[in-house]
């Protein structure tokens, strides 16, 4: 049924299917990017005996053509929906959004639209690393600009279904061929911009039944990605549909209908069981939420903090050194610990830095130290510390991307293990030549000493393995010198280097190591 919106003379096409059941609940379906209202054709026959159904075409999709002077926008879509609901006297409904249609539904919830009674999101992206979203958009748009629209759409269709018949795939292809390219691009940008603005904090006041659904074999937004979505929304229900792809309504229409019906009955109209209020579960959920939130903030952050403490202490924010009184109130030590681990508890900090103090005094010491760190960061950036470090009641987590030269060194050592023996010796010699005389100078807390020992033992293992090979004499000597430096009481290394020096006729150096060896006997 077409309706014309008077304010912009746009015609919106929709279908309102009235159930035979009196006082039936109403579903409103919002299709995804490049689709149209016929996307829902396979589930309508199973739902209409029990529910009223509203399906419509988004601007520039299906039968809904956009005038040149009208652009695809959320305000236009909400105006369409509200006009449909007013015309059909529908005060509220259960909204089902697929992919980008789910993002439109979420925006309605965030704008506190009263007509949303419950929300079902099917294969809808909520968390998406910023750079990946940007790259995919540029890739799609560039291919379309090259006149290869069909290539883009075929790739999408092949990726969103796993068991659909050729007839259903052909129907999807027909939908995408009807879409207006300007609207397609604008719809994509609306979704991308929405996703980039999402955060757990943004949804914390959302209080309505939410159902997240994803196909087991969704190749566009895999189930693992949607696990993050669940933490954003604290949804009422989250399910993975077996043997289904991204377009669940195409691959598993009957199962989708059963799940929608059960959700409305049990979670909207009924009282589902709840795990809340159980001490262990509440604590576990809180910890998991904190961990995920921290990781999400880091991935989406445009800022990077670099911790340099391998040779000397220095902290950089986006390439600029944060200067301040780091040598006071254990600021250098505590900040290094937080940045290196990225998530710590207050109890860990008490144990590491004030193991001998009673708890009350340790708490006071930590409070003073954190306030001092806060003054350094805020004095340098002009921003609240929470933009970079989130200090909670129990957890302290980084809110930005973190790099450290200590972590880089450990990764470099791991990479050495993958290098062939023929190249490994030279790379080891080059690495140990770059290392300072003492790792992490000026830091003597137990965790730093353990980190130093771990690095030295990893290098020792690699070098000892290499010493069994036929090495270049100079490389062998340099590696043995390093081993003697970190293991000055190991007689075997002295004997090995004396033999190597003699082979190279470096007699003057032999005297030094002979004296050292004799002092050990």
| CATH homologous superfamily grouping of the largest domain | Alpha/Beta hydrolase fold, catalytic domain
Nearest-integer average pLDDT: 89
How can the largest sheet be summarized?
8 strands, mixed
Number of strands: 15
Q: What's the CATH first level of the largest domain?
A: Alpha Beta
Determine the structural class based on helices, strands and strand pairing. alpha/beta
Radius of gyration: 31 Å
Might you state the CATH topology name of the largest domain? Rossmann fold
Give the N-to-C terminal Cα separation: 99 Å
Describe this structure in words.
The protein has 521 residues and is of the alpha/beta class. It folds into three domains: 267 residues, Alpha/Beta hydrolase fold, catalytic domain (Rossmann fold, 3-Layer(aba) Sandwich); 124 residues, Winged helix-like DNA-binding domain superfamily/Winged helix DNA-binding domain (Arc Repressor Mutant, subunit A, Orthogonal Bundle), CATH 1.10.10; 104 residues, no CATH class. 52% of the residues lie in helices and 14% in strands. An eight-stranded mixed β-sheet has the order 1-2-4-3-5-6-7-8, with helices on both faces. Strands 11-10-9-15 form a four-stranded mixed β-sheet. Strand 10 and strand 11 form a beta hairpin. Helix 3 crosses helix 7, helix 17 runs antiparallel to helix 18 and helix 18 runs antiparallel to helix 19.
């Amino acid at each position: 049924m077409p309706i014309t919106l008077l304010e912009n003379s746009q015609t919106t096409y929709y279908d309102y299917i009235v159930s035979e059941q009196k006082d039936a609940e109403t579903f409103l379906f919002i299709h995804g990017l490049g689709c149209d209202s016929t996307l829902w054709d396979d589930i309508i026959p199973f739902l209409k005996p029990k529910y009223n159904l509203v399906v419509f075409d988004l601007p520039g999709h299906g039968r809904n053509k956009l005038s040149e002077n009208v652009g695809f926008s959320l305000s236009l879509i909400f105006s369409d929906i509200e006009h449909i609901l007013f015309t059909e006297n529908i005060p509220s409904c259960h909204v089902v959004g697929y992919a980008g249609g789910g993002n439109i539904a979420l925006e309605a919830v965030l704008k506190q639209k009263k007509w949303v009674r419950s929300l079902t999101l099917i294969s809808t992206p909520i968390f998406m690393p910023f750079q990946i979203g940007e790259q995919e958009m540029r890739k799609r748009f560039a291919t379309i600009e090259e006149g290869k629209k069909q290539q883009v759409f075929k790739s999408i269709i092949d990726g969103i279904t796993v068991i659909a018949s050729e007839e259903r795939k052909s129907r999807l292809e027909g939908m995408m061929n009807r879409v207006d390219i300007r609207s397609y691009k604008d719809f994509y940008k609306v979704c991308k911009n929405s996703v980039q603005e999402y955060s757990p904090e943004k949804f914390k006041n959302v209080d309505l039944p939410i159902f997240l659904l994803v196909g087991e074999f969704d190749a566009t937004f895999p189930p693992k990605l949607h696990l993050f979505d669940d933490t954003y929304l604290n949804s009422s229900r989250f399910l993975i549909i077996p043997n289904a792809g991204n377009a669940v309504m195409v691959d598993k229409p009957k199962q989708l209908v059963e799940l929608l019906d059960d959700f409305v009955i049990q979670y909207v109209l009924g009282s589902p069981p709840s795990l809340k209020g159980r001490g262990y579960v509440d604590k576990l959920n809180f910890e998991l939420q904190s961990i995920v939130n921290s990781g999400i903030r880091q991935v989406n952050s445009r800022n990077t903090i670099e911790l340099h403490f391998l040779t000397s202490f220095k902290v950089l924010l986006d390439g600029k050194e944060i200067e301040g009184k780091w040598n006071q109130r254990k600021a250098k030590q505590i900040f290094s610990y937080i940045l290196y681990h990225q998530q710590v508890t207050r109890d860990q900090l008490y144990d590491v830095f004030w193991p001998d103090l009673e708890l009350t005094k340790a708490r006071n010491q930590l409070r003073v130290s954190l306030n001092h760190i806060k003054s350094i960061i805020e004095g340098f950036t002009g921003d609240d510390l929470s933009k970079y470090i989130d200090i909670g009641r129990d957890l302290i987590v980084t809110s930005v991307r973190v790099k450290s030269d200590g972590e880089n060194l450990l990764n470099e050592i791991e990479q050495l293990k993958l290098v062939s023996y023929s190249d490994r010796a030279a790379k080891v010699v080059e690495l140990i030549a770059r290392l300072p005389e003492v790792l992490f100078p000026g830091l003597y807390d137990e965790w730093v000493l353990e980190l130093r020992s771990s690095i030295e033992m990893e290098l020792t293992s690699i070098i000892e393995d290499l010493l069994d090979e036929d090495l270049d004499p100079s490389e062998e000597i340099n590696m043995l010198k390093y081993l003697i430096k970190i293991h000055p009481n190991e007689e075997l290394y002295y004997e090995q280097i004396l033999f190597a020096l003699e082979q190279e006729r470096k007699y003057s150096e032999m005297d030094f190591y002979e004296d050292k060896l004799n002092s050990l006997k």
